[in-house]
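Suppose a colleague, Dr. K., hands you the sequence of a protein chain of 403 amino acids and asks what its three-dimensional shape might be. Before reaching for any lab equipment, you can write down a predicted structure in C-alpha cell form. Begin with the sequence itself:
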Amino acid sequence: MTYLPGLRQPAPPTMVAWGADMTAYNFGHGHPMAPARMELTARLAESLGLFSLDHVAVEAPGVATDSELEAVHSADYVAAVRKVSADPSTPDESRGLGTEDDPAFAGMHEASARLAGGSLLAASRILDGSAVHAVNFGGGMHHAARDRASGFCIYNDAALAVQKLLDGGVRKVAYIDVDAHHGDGTESIFWNDPRVLTLSLHESGMTLFPGTGFANEIGGPGAEGTAVNVALPSGTGDAGWLRAFYAVVPQVVAAFEPEVIVSQHGCDSHRTDPLTHLNLSVDGQREAASAVGNLAAQFCGGRWIATGGGGYNVVDVVPRAWSHLVAIAAGRPVPLRTPVPQDWRDYVDAKYGATAPELMGDDVELWWRSWEVGFDPNDAVDRTVMATRKAVFPLHGLDPWFD
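The predicted structure, expressed as C-alpha cells, is then:
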C-alpha cells in the first residue's frame, strides 16, 4: 500500500501504545525531555479523530520485566537503574545515571521500563499479526547503550523491539533513525549483528551530541555495511535532508531485504528546536514518515514499528509531527493545511499559556532535487551523501555513483 494524497487507501490494522502513566518518564522541571510532549501528542491525535478509527487500537503498555530488558541490556545495568530509582540520592554516574542529561528520579526504572514496554508491545502485535503498523511515540530512546544511560535515554526501547522481532523469528530488521542526533545506542547494540541494518540520518557529530555517526562507521566484523550513517551539515533544511534520504535509504533498504522496519522519528530536526541546528519543517518531517511507511509497504509487506524520540519544541512541533506519524501509520494522512483542532488550541492556551499553531503544517514549499540529477562536489550535503554511498554501497553490491 502507498500513501498518496487524495486516494482512499486500504487501512492497515494499527496499534498505538499510549497510556497517561507514560508521562511518569519525567526528569524534572526545566529538563528538555518534558512529559507534556506525549500528553499533547495524544490529545491532538485524539482531537484529529485518529484514535477513534475502527482499525486503530490504542493500548496502554505495561512495565517491561527485567528479563525482557536484559534482551539488550546487561543485568548489572538493570540492577543499577533499579537501585538509583529506589534511592535517587545515590546516583551512578559511571553508568550515566544521575547526570545532568539523565537526572535520577524516584520511579525511574518503572517509568523507563514502561516506555520500553510500549515498543515491546508493538513488536508483539506485529509478530502475532494483530497489527501491521504499530506506533509508540513515547519511545525512541536511541542513546541508551547495553550498560549505560545517555542523552535522556535510560532503556533502549527501539533496540528491544528489534531484538524481540528477531527472537520471534524475523530474519532481518531495518532500523531507520531520523532524529537530529545520531542513533548511537541502537547502533552499538547491533554493531556486530548482520541481521540488523541501522541507518541514521542526523546532524554531524562535529556540531552536535553525541559526536559520532560518520560515514566510516559501517558495522563490526562480519556485519560490515549494516551500520549506515549520513552526517548532515549544520543548517541542512528540507531540500537537503530529503535529497540525502532518498539518495541513500531506499537503495540500501532494498538491497538488505528486511522483513520489518523499526523507525525512530525524533522531530528535533525542526528549525525551531532549541537543542539542534538543522532546519526542517513539520512538512519535511511528515514526508520522512511517509517515506518510511512506503518502504515498509514496498519491502516488508507493510510491517512497521514507529517510535518517537527527540523533539524539544513541546507545543509548536512535537504534537503535530507525531500526530502526522500516527496518521500515516493508520493509513489516513492528515493534509498539511488542515486546521489544528480548536479544542486542542484552547487546551494549550488554558494549560500552558501558549498560542498553538493554526495549521498542521508549516506552509512551506516542499521540494528537493533527486540524486539522479547528479553529484555536486561543491555542495556540503552532496559531499556527505557521497561519503556514505562510497563507504557502504559497494558492501551491498551497489554502485555509489549510479545506483
